[in-house]
Amino acid sequence: QPRTMMSDSDDDEPVVKRTKHEVGPDLPELSDDEASSSSAPPPGRYPPPAWAVVTVDGKPKRKCKWVKPDGSECGTCVVDKKEQIENHWRIHTGEKPFKCRHCDTAFTTSGTRGAHERSRHTGEKPYKCRHCPKAFATQFTRDTHERRKHTGEKSYLCQYCPKTFTTSSQRGVHERRHTKEKPYKCTHCPKA
Predict the structure, then answer these.
(1) Which position has the higher pLDDT, 190 or 87?
(2) Which pLDDT score is estimated for 49?
(3) In whole angstroms, what is the distance from residue 74 CA to residue 71 CA?
(4) Which of 73, 22, 70, 79 is nearest to 50 (CA)?
C-alpha cells in the first residue's frame, strides 16, 4: 500500500508516496527513474504521468506530453520537482484544490490563492518596493512596478526583432504586429 504523509499546511491534502514496487489497479509500476525521483504526480489524483525527462540549460526538467483535444502535445517544460509538476498537471485536469478562506473561489496553487486573498480580501501588501515607499500584494506586481518605474529593465525580447520590453504582455502585443494575429474578436461585428 502507498504511504500517506501529511503535508506542511493544514489546508493541503495528504501527499501519497510510493516506491517502484507498489502497484495496483490504478498504480502502474514506476520506472527506475520515476522511483528514484519524488516528482511523479501522486497516484489516484491524476492520470498516469505523461512526461518526458529533458535537459534545458543544463537542468533536468519534465516535458508535458498531455495530448490536447486537437491532437497536439502540450510540450510545456517544468522544473523536475513534485510541486511544479502537480501545479502544471492541474491545468489539464481542471483540479482546483485550494479554496479561498473568504469567498467561494478556488485555485490550482496555494500561491495564487494567497495572492487572491491578499489583493481581494485582506489588503495585506508584504512586497515592498526597493526604491520607493509603495507596497504590493504580490511579488509579480512589485517586480513589474520596479521595472517600469525605477530600473527600466527590459528583459522580454521579441522573437522576431531586437526590441525588448518591460513586461511579457507588452512583448505579446508587439509580436502580434509581426504575425498579424488578431485573437480578440468583436462580439457585435466581424472585426478583430
Answers:
(1) 190
(2) 58
(3) 9
(4) 73
Pinpoint the alpha helices (H) of 51-109.
82-93
Q: Whole-angstrom Cα distance, residue 43 to residue 28?
A: 8
SS3 65: coil
> Does 138 score more than 60 pLDDT?
yes
Phi and psi angles of residue 3, each rounded to the nearest 5 degrees, phi first: -90, 130
Nearest Cα to Cα of residue 41 among 91, 104, 110: 91
Q: Give yes or no for residue 58 having a pLDDT over 50.
A: yes
CA distance 28 to 155: 43
Q: Please, what is the Cα angle at 73 between 69 and 75, to 5 degrees?
A: 140
- Is the per-residue pLDDT at 122 higher than 90? yes
pLDDT tens for each residue of 60-111: 888 888 887 788 888 787 777 778 888 888 888 888 999 999 999 999 888 8
Phi, psi for 155 (deg, rounded to 5): -95, 0
Give the separation between CA 41 and CA 15, rounded to whole angstroms. 10
Residue 17, SS3? strand
User: 77 is written with which cell numbers?
Assistant: 517544460
- Whole-angstrom distance, CA of residue 26 vs CA of residue 117: 36
CA dist 91 and 106 (Å) reads 13
